[in-house]
Amino acid sequence: MSAIEFKGYALTDPSRWNDLKVTSIKPKNFSSCDVEIAITHCGVCGSDVHTLTQGWGESKLPLVVGHEIIGHVTRVGDKVKEFKKGDRVGVGAQIGSCMQCRPCKSDYENYCPNGISTYNSEYPDGVVSQGGYATAIRAHQQFVFPIPDEIESRDAASMMCAGLTVYSPLKTYGAGPGKKVGIMGIGGLGHYAVLWAKAMGAEVYAFTHDKSKMDDIKKMGADHIINTEEPDFYKPLANTLDLIVSTRDVYSPETPLGSYLSMLFVHGKFITVGIPDTNQPLPSLHPFDLASNGCLVGGSSIGSKKEALDMLELARKKNVRPWIEEMPMKNAGKALQNVKDNKVRYRYVLTQDLN
């Protein structure tokens, strides 16, 4: 039996979306392949805001969010070979899958049709998954990642979702030496995309409308900074970029998506990882926008364990560290509001304060 009391900062009233109350929670029923983790740190993600504000649909109450989790192993199931008590580990935005389908058997478990999100999902037995603004969590070993000794917990936390979400498409679509990579939107995800793409050896083009971030973006390593407020910002870069990763999670119908696509080289890819509220679709496109350079438009969903381990090795080897601000977990409401208001530079990490 677990000696940990499972409790967390939970949403209880959607009309007060960032007024979280300490609440007892029911963890996953422990199985032979599970790892139990005492949480020390949890990053604050835009997904948390979308979920708490009901932008992605109705929450299962009470609900603890948070899926950028770092902690220490307190218990392992009989079939767990990779981890032992005391190990420092992380958990990201996915906590389960069927393990049987073609994606699961091909190192694409993040695309499993029956995947289970770290919070606001249900396990097959009906238990609601609860996230990392909490004392502890249980997870199948496939969704637990060992953290290299060289990376501090506060730095590793936001890699579990934000870092992995942009690392995956950069890796998949060949960011590296000789490639020109555009990053659209330099927030929590975008700043990671700049850091990773630079560490991979790509030439990095950062697109932003926020002049107050430009000095920061230079320090992150971007080779070029393009102010999207300038008319015709895209014209000098026509047919130039091999890949654009869009991290934007707010679109207006006026967003000139076709102009971004025009900057892609032949068969270049535009990959969106930011997911807006359900009432905000991508801006409309005309087939002409795709035909002139044969470009491709696609998406990406978090990342696999294989990609997470590759990402952590890159961070260890190249000393990649995020730009973060720490605060105690009791201040989650403040952090969430600042994320919603785009005031974070560039990721909040909550530190454990529940006994």
TrEMBL record:
Gene3D superfamilies: Medium-chain alcohol dehydrogenases, catalytic domain, NAD(P)-binding Rossmann-like Domain. It comes from the Eukaryota. Coiled coil: none annotated. Keywords: Metal-binding, Oxidoreductase, Zinc. Residues 15-350 form the Enoyl reductase (ER) domain. Belongs to the zinc-containing alcohol dehydrogenase family. This is GroES-like protein. It comes from Obba rivulosa. The lineage of its organism: Eukaryota, Fungi, Dikarya, Basidiomycota, Agaricomycotina.
